[in-house]
Write a structure and sequence with these properties.
- The complex is a heterodimer.
- By secondary structure, chain A is mostly helical.
- Among the domains of chain A are: 76 residues, Up-down Bundle (Four Helix Bundle (Hemerythrin (Met), subunit A)), CATH 1.20.120; 34 residues.
- Chain A is extended, with a radius of gyration of 21 Å.
- The chains are: A mainly alpha, B mainly alpha.
- At the A-B interface, helix 1, helix 2, helix 3, helix 4 and helix 5 of A face helix 1, helix 2 and helix 3 of B.
């Protein structure tokens, strides 16, 4: 049961990602969480999704996070919690009990014995072609949105005033 | 009682979901909220893959997971761009400092 160590690693890295005092440390712990998650996905047989998760989750998002942290400054988070911690813990435990009660019986269900297998490329480019096209459009739209948001308008104002 | 591999993955899913939800409820820093969302969505992606593994439909599960990864990345990137602009204008990343509709 060596996979248990991956699960423990995911729990520790995920917890550190939200509990680290410095933002840059959070970004690095998040990258480790992503890498370990993609390892589990690979072990489950989802090879393509694991590669994409590793390159996007541990790569692109981490680089962008570090870039954003560089701009805003690596400040320590010492603000008070939004919801009291004991109330948050109660809500989380309730949510996890509900999630567990739904998920655990599913593993023993009869309907899981599906005979036909699905292929990633066929599913992606034939069965879900509309979704794929929509993702491409969304990606372009988000790139345009980010470009307009990242634009530094302070220089324009200076030019107009001079 | 011995834990099988799907049981272990289910534990990881619940841990990631719990950590992400807890952070969303307690954290005020905008960048940290993005990190919390990322942690939560990683649990969801893992659950989709686990469902595909259990039903022998791993191809379909992978394409669904890919959609979630794309959507999550777009949310993260737009969130970071917004956080940068808010930091430039308000000089703070605390959600309570940037609220315009105060009671």
């Amino acid at each position: 049961m060596w996979q248990l160590f991956i699960v423990i690693g995911i729990c520790i890295a995920g917890f550190q990602a939200i509990e680290s005092k410095r933002l840059s440390h959070s970004a690095l712990w998040l990258a480790l969480t992503s890498a370990l998650t993609s390892w589990l996905m690979y072990l489950l047989g989802a090879v393509e999704a694991a590669v994409i998760e590793l390159s996007v989750g541990a790569g692109v998002v981490t680089i962008l996070l570090v870039f954003a942290i560089n701009i805003v400054g690596d400040q320590k988070d010492e603000s008070k919690p939004l919801v009291p911690k004991y109330l948050a813990m109660f809500i989380i435990l309730t949510a996890l009990v509900m999630l567990g009660s739904m998920l655990i019986p599913i593993q023993q269900a009869d309907f899981l014995t599906v005979t036909s297998t699905s292929v990633f490329a066929k599913s992606m480019w034939e069965e879900r072609i509309l979704d794929t096209m929509l993702q491409i459009v969304l990606l372009f739209a988000s790139v345009l949105g980010v470009l307009s948001l990242m634009e530094d308008r302070s220089n324009e104002k200076k030019d107009q005033s001079s | 009682m011995t834990l099988t591999f799907p049981d272990l993955v289910l534990i990881a899913v619940m841990a990631l979901f719990g950590i992400g939800l807890y952070a969303l409820l307690t954290i005020r820093n905008l960048i940290r909220i993005i990190v919390a969302l990322q942690v939560l969505v990683k649990g969801v992606i893992l659950l989709i893959i686990l469902a595909g593994y259990l039903t022998n439909q791993i191809g379909m599960a992978q394409s669904m997971a890919l959609t979630v990864i794309v959507a999550d990345t777009i949310v993260a990137v737009l969130g970071m761009a917004l956080a940068v602009q808010i930091m430039r204008k308000k000089k703070s990343l605390d959600t309570s400092d940037i609220a315009e509709l105060k009671r």
